[in-house]
Amino acid sequence: MPSPQTETPGLELQSPKEAEESQTPAQGSWRTSSRKEPNAHCKDGTRLGLGTLRQAFSRASQRALTQVSKEDTGLFRPSSCSLFRSFRQALDGGPAAGHVQATPEVPSGVMNGVSQQASTGAASEELKPEAEGKSVADLITERQLLAAFEQLLRLETRLVAEKASRTFEQDPTAFARRAMDVCLHYDGLAAELSAIVRETLGSDGVDAAVLAELARVVNAEEEAHPSPPDDGDFLRTPRHWRQHWEEAVRRSAQERVRRPGAGWASAAAEGASGLAQLLAELGGSVRRDLQKVRQEVQPAYAAAGFPAWEVYLRAFHSAVAQRLQELARDARGCEQLYVLLDWAANVYGSPDFLGPPGLALPAEPLPPLLAPDVWARLESDYTSFLEAKIASCFDNILQLEQSHWAAAEDPEVLQGLYQAPLSVDVHMLVAEHVKAAGAISAELEATTLRICTRALGLFVPRFEKAFLASEAVSEPHLGAYINACEELRTGILSRFPGTLEELEKPLVAATCSFQKHLLQGLQRELQPLFRVVCTRDWLTQDWLRPLMDKVVRFTGHLQRVAQPRAQETLQEVHRFVVREYLAQALRPRKRFWAMERMRGSQKMSLDAQAISDTFQGLGSEATWLDQAIQCVAEILGETYKDDIQRHLETLIRSYPDIRRDHILAILALRRLGCRRNQHLLQHTQDLLRAAAGVVGAEAPRGRVLFEEIKVPSAIAVRITCI
């Protein structure tokens, strides 16, 4: 039989065996100081619960305090924070009813004794259930959390009752030791709860029964302390373990979110690829943790009515947001900023990232991953870098084209058309950046499109100037760049209609410029051949064949130019040939007499037919040009002078841009005489006035012929006629 022990009223003491075991301090025990154990303070010399406390702390220390950071432990010690204030009240003979009052400071010798006693394992009085016979520390170690809490709650209730009955008036330090014992065990229990939360998402995890036990303990604490007590007893102050559990979840989420970013310094040095890899690891880690919460943690807590999914979801959401803002502060360059924006919008923001479809989300929506001002700053920084990047890309495109010119490389022919890399490169540049921005937000897409449009509008005239100043100007290259401008105009404007205003003008101007230079090359070749028209050699030579051969060769290039630009250019060639022919005919170097005039009329008629047939065979749609040379030929060879008026009427109606000077030049070629000329001029005056009105108002677009033909002045023509 064990020998009887001296008891402090209301609390059990340890058995002799426990007292014997307590003589050897346990390694790793819960304590706040390394000083030696003080002498017992009880009047009867009995050491109240010291061995038990040290033994319990020894068992639980490796599991609790060594795994819980100082910050985590501090979260669960509101009772310890208020403990010393109550100690002063007890030591100074506080109110019997237990109401807290402001009291003078306790002498340092007394407080040092209390502190030393608590720090070295003050007397531990534990209630031992008859069934199990386990101490609170054993229960905590074995994670029988609810049983440990209930035992502590009974101990707390008994201690409060003894304090109210003034049991400790003669020995206030006994109350301090026992209160400290209760508080330290509460803190040990809280530390174990924190350790469970930390281990929950670890590789080994935590048994579902332990999680359910944790939830029941929190519910039991809320039931035991539903609201702050009215008597001011520090031991009965609510510990708000649900809030502390939520805080532990948040800290766990923060630790796990920061773990994949440990190598951010090296990842940042690798540029966008390093950041993308880091975010991929972060996303994978968060996905796995949330999946574990859904499949294992939430069901374990659900039985106790704990909203584990929502708490964990909000915790990870907050942790990811904080981590992303840290990464955003260190991000540099367009690529890294885009990687961040894209990950936030399309990876984390995807519907299935936080959970499978149909999973219940929190009733209150989650806040934005990045605050609006942070998101706006990232987009602004991204667009600033993007402007410089787009301008640099256009510079690279120009340099690439210049390298083709320097190498004297002819453009490729693709599907029967000249193809320049210019259009493909610009299309890809604009489309890729606009599409990438659209994947993040509509606002960023619109901003990126404006940047690309503005840069392209500046690039086109710069490119045009550089090309025309180079030595690479040739028919194939001009045809290729006409195609490129037309492809950009139709492709980009059809895909992005909002760019019409900024891009239409420079692209059309560049296309017209390339067409003009293409025509000028042919005109320089053909111009000398027209000088023979209306000369003696003209009557005897087949001068038209070499001219039309050059035209046919030129149209071979036009066949590789896209429509409608090819047809426009062909019609311009057709118009040029007719116009230059008439220009030479209306200022002849030789005066024809009767027989020569008839031969000249026949020759001109044959030339008109050959020109019309050739261009019709080449596909020219400018049939309105066919009558011009033919009418002049008929006037030149008309034997019945009264029919000359009919030919003039046909000419004026067909070509409203004809003028009186042109009529005089034609009549001078016919050599009718002054009186006949005056009669014909008076008859055609009304028709000329009507034709002038049509040219100013309703003349078909592009139908200009005689307006561009210069003839001698009216006085000179009249002198010639006389």
UniProtKB/TrEMBL annotation:
InterPro entries referenced in this protein's UniProt entry, alphabetically: EXOC3/Sec6, EXOC3/Sec6_C
Gene Ontology annotations for the cellular component aspect, listed alphabetically: exocyst
Compositional bias of kind Polar residues: 22-32
Domain of life, source organism: Eukaryota
Keyword Phosphoprotein: yes
Listed Basic and acidic residues bias regions: 34-46
Swiss-Prot/TrEMBL keywords: Phosphoprotein
Gene Ontology molecular function: any one: SNARE binding
Name assigned to this protein: Exocyst complex component 3-like protein 4
